[in-house]
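Revision sheet: structure tokens.
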Amino acid sequence: MYAPGNTVPSYSKPKRGRRTWPRKRTATHVCSFAGCGKTYTKSSHLKAHLRTHTGEKPYHCSWEGCGWKFARSDELTRHYRKHTGHRPFQCHLCERAFSRSDHLALHMKRHM
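Predicted:
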């Protein structure tokens, strides 16, 4: 029994669908190339990694006269920004904008 003025311990259920501990996925996809053995949690990541061994570059730039090829689709997307001039990463402290997030991150260090 609790006397007036004492605090009652509160209990709250964890929100549905949320974990209270960090979940680590088991790396089940292993590179089979001799001497490599890198592991990945997603098969798509292993597939992209295998291209580093095979040299396959299935993503082709369709810009007229370009001819660049890439192993990953995100590399092609980044490359297209060179042709279009698209700069989606805007500095919130000045007017500068960048085509790559890592270039914005480097720029932000100048404001410190």
